[in-house]
Write a structure and sequence with these properties.
The complex is a heterodimer.
Chain A: E1 4-7, E2 10-14, E3 19-25, E4 31-37, E5 43-48, E6 52-56, E7 59-64, E8 69-74, E9 83-90, E10 98-100, E11 104-109
Parallel strand pairs in A: 2-11
Antiparallel strand pairs in A: 1-3, 3-8, 4-5, 4-9, 6-7, 7-8, 9-10, 9-11
Chain B: E1 5-7, E2 10-13, E3 19-24, E4 31-37, E5 44-50, E6 53-57, E7 64-68, E8 74-78, E9 87-94, E10 102-103, E11 107-111
Parallel strand pairs in B: 2-11
Antiparallel strand pairs in B: 1-3, 3-8, 4-5, 4-9, 5-6, 7-8, 9-10, 9-11
The chains are: A mainly beta, B mainly beta.
Chain lengths: 110, 112
């Protein structure tokens, strides 16, 4: 099955710093999403981005499908950005499942 | 608009017991998927249902089963619970297969 690797596994930043999270995947996909998991376990949708670039406030994402990677940019980080960021991919096939990476745990210090 | 709702939010069961988890998708969404997330890992796919039919199954034992009702809500059933079934169970709702998925708040199951 498709492999999803996220890097770095852990990231510690000072408030106000910028960061880039990476997601590599091993096969072509037709679905890619970025999520933020809050301390209570809820997965919050950040971007649905199987290709191209999107921006939402301080966050932006780029997926280069032909090179099998996606990047999530966080600018001017805030303490409320802390949590685990997941990339999940899907591809057509018998299973219709989304495959998640192991996540990047972000800690933003005041 | 109501998002994806799951019930219950927390549950404690004893080994060997059976559990039923429930999920109501976003209005208009016809696909429901179930995921298991153990501590420190990403969610793992269990089932997908679309238009009330099973469309996908992950690598989970037959103790896990699910169904989708005419109103598109869904149940996940787990029989003969093991300690290793302790996890956060997440339900995802989407309009169709392979479209943007939205997750509920999850059910945290503890097996003792």
């Amino acid at each position: 099955g498709i492999q999803v690797e996220q890097s770095p596994p852990d990231l510690i930043l000072q408030e106000g710093a910028n960061s880039t999270l990476r997601c590599n995947f091993s096969d072509s996909v037709n679905n890619l999403q970025w999520f933020h998991q809050n301390p209570w376990g809820q997965l919050i949708n950040l971007f649905y981005i199987p290709s191209g670039t999107k921006q939402n406030g301080r966050l932006s994402a780029t997926t280069v499908a032909t090179e099998r990677y996606s990047l999530l940019y966080i600018s001017s980080s805030q303490t409320t950005d802390s949590g685990v960021y997941f990339c999940a991919v899907g591809r057509p096939g018998n299973n219709n499942d989304m495959r998640f990476g192991a996540g990047t745990r972000l800690t933003v210090k005041p | 608009d109501a998002g994806v709702t799951q019930s219950p939010t927390h549950l404690i069961k004893t080994r060997g017991q059976h559990v039923t988890l429930r999920c109501s998708p976003i209005s208009g969404h016809k696909s429901v998927s179930w995921y298991q997330q153990v501590l420190g890992q990403g969610p793992q796919f269990i089932f997908q249902y679309y238009e009330k039919e099973e469309r996908g199954r992950g690598n989970f034992p037959d103790r896990f089963s699910a169904r989708q009702f005419p109103n598109y809500s869904s149940e996940l059933n787990v029989n003969a619970l093991l300690l290793g079934d302790s996890a956060l169970y997440l339900c995802a709702s989407s309009f169709a297969k392979n479209t943007e998925a939205f997750f509920g708040q999850g059910t945290r199951l503890t097996v003792v």
